[in-house]
Amino acid sequence: MEIYDKIISFVRGQFEEPEAFIPLHEPRFIGKEKEYVTEVIDSTFVSYVGPYVSKFEEQIAQNVGSRFAVATNSGTSALHIALLSAGVGPNDEVITQPLTFVATVNAIRYINASPVFVDVDRDTLGLSPEKLKEFLEAECEIKNGTTFNKKTGRKITACMPVHTFGFPCRIDSINETCDEYNIVVVEDAAESLGSYYKNKHTGTFGKIGAFSFNGNKTITCGGGGMVVTDDEETAKLAKHLTTTAKVQHPWEYVHDMVGYNYRMPNLNAAVACAQLEKLADFVDNKRELAKNYIEFFADLPVDFIEENDDSKSNYWLMALIFESLDQRNDFLKFSNDRKVMTRPIWKLMNKLGPFKNFQTSDLSNSEWFEQRVVNIPSSVRLNDSWRR
Ligand SMILES: *Cc1c(COP(=O)(O)O)cnc(C)c1O
Predict the structure, then answer these.
(1) Which atom, in ligand 1's list, is nearest to the CA of 225?
(2) Is residue 386 predicted with pLDDT exceeding 90?
């Protein structure tokens, strides 16, 4: 317990909070949020029409280096639309990792497609290109350019790796393997705005990527998401699907597909634009906190998860690895009792009721993480050097 005490004091020291509750990740509104929101309210264009939505789309595209961006009302809807725009249909299969937030797999199920769970790497927490290759070689066959799962007979249309906690996965190798099998790569980059793999922004490696601006993410607009792609047709389809599939016309209501009301309101986009102006500062601030944690945990028998040399992580949620499930549980109780919020990594998706009957391969790394990983306070800090 002495070491847990040490950890708690250190965390409190980082946030300059000797007593108060310390949340896992709280938003910071220290920019032009109020100014932009007031402008939107005064204009009365609070909903889907208004300049901030297109402005935010253009700015995200520019920031991450993609040709197109389509704003949505959540990260989950962005994933749903990304899969649909990538051509995933009912009864198809989508390869993904079991170590993720539930939205990844929900999006697959919204289409009535099935997830197939492949393991993650120990050093990235993201989908393992080696395990992916092993699965495809052992379990699948290519017929007329399409990959089929031999066990289920179903078509494997897409692969959806996740950049877990903001740590980039080996997305270039995943791309390479998926190319060989004609499988479309859809990146769940919900947690990784501001993260780079080999100097290229996460979410821009696959055919299409999705980000989230939920309240607990690195930047937020209350709720929101973004689909990014370099492919013009895919971008057009994504925009069409998110906007009720309405055919452009000055007054007639014609809809040529079953579309969705997934648009980001102008009010939220105003907040999002103000937040994006702070992204670089937020990421710097979080990386500084990560550096402090790294130095602190270097001398302790608990591992702090670090980025790899080929990556730059936004350190969205920082995480510890304990030696055992018991230790993990002890620390969760100890820290939460002392009002320092910590929480375990997600239960694996293949163990949840709605997804437990889908195919899995060897998931030993995911299971290893599930027993040991705890997230610790990771918010942008408001210390003196920052309060400019
Ligand atoms: C947050 C998150 C999402 C979903 O985003 P929402 O905006 O909450 O709908 C999807 N995938 C992952 C991995 C996430 O962390």
Answers:
(1) 7
(2) no
